[in-house]
Each structure stands twice: as structure tokens, then as C-alpha cells.
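Reminder: ligand-aware prediction takes two inputs, not one.
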Amino acid sequence: MNDNLSPNAEPINRLVQELNKLPGIGPKSAQRLAYYLLRAPEENAGLLADAIMSVKREITLCSICFNVTDSNPCRICRSDERDRTKVCIVEQPQDILALEHTRIYKGLYHVLHGAISPTEGVGTEDIRIKELLERLNGSPVDEVILATNTNLEGEQTALYLHRLISPLGIKVTRLARGLPFGTELEYADDVTLTRALEGRQEL
Ligand SMILES: [Zn+2]
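Here is what comes back for the chain with zinc ion:
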């Protein structure tokens, strides 16, 4: 017996390490997943590896709204059925999924890819604000809906955007207070989100 050897073979250790880097996956879950994959048919493991790689290869950001997409412009920006006078501002692409799931919003989106956070060193130039202003300039947009998260960073970002956008003569609204403080949009349920959208108020 050799005590210097890790109980896992090296390739398993590597997989555990990589899985452990994923959000929400602790060392124990990483180990469980690694052993699951080890037992799974090779074909399934191949499909998973391939799905990961094709996301990296084929997904880009829409050049208009910065949503993740496999075609540019994205389906929402290309669609004839969307209301081009409304743009909903969100922090992350996943937030679009949550809002689309409610089926009540028919306008366009703009993904900031973050929120202003001085404590984490995220400034106004680190998220897609400049692109938003360029996009609004001379556009038919008459309402911008601020749907950033209801935590400190999201509120700061909303206030900052309000100051920038309202002088352009565009109505700026914020999702209603139905969302409890600290809510990340992506995890809000449909009923709460629908209420927040319908009850949005001008800032
Ligand atoms: Zn788009």
C-alpha cells in the first residue's frame, strides 16, 4: 500500500477539480458527478463534452442587444412581432429567459453583462452602457424598462441609467416593487415577474 497516492486515479482527480470550479458545485458534488460520468456510457460523456464545446464555439453575443445567440442579430432583435418602442434592460442573458417565460413582454432587450459595483471594481465602462446609449440615439424607443436586480448593485445601476437616459426624452420605468429586495431576476417566479412588469412605474 502506498499512502502517498491519492485514493482517486489522476484523470478522476482532474475531472473532480474541473467540476468543482462550476458555480454551486462543492467538492462532494464534484466527486459524485465525476463517478457518475465514469460509470455512464462513453457516448453520454461524449455528448456532454461536445455540448460544452459547441456552446463555446457557436454562441456569440448579439451585436444589437448583447444577448447570447447562435445567429446575429438574435431571434428577438430580428423578429417582426416585437414592439420596437420598448427596451428592457437586464443584467444577464438568463434574465431574458425569465422575462420571456412570463409571455407578457413583447418589446426588445439590452443585456448589460453585469451591474455597477464599486466594491467589486465594476465601473460604468465595464458593462454595456455605451452601447445602450448608441443604440437609443435616434431609435424609435419611447420607453426603457430598468429590470436590473433589486440588490444594491442593481439599484445603483438603475439610478445611473435613469440619469443618463431621461434627458434623451425617453420614458424610464423600473419594475414594480413586488420583487423583494435582493431578488435576482433569474430566480423570480412568473407571477411575481408578471406583476412587477405590469406594475412598472416611471422613475
Ligand atoms: Zn439581439
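The helical segments are 10-20, 27-39, 42-58, 75-78, 93-102, 129-136, 152-165, 190-198. The chain has a mean pLDDT of 92. We will return to this case in the review session.
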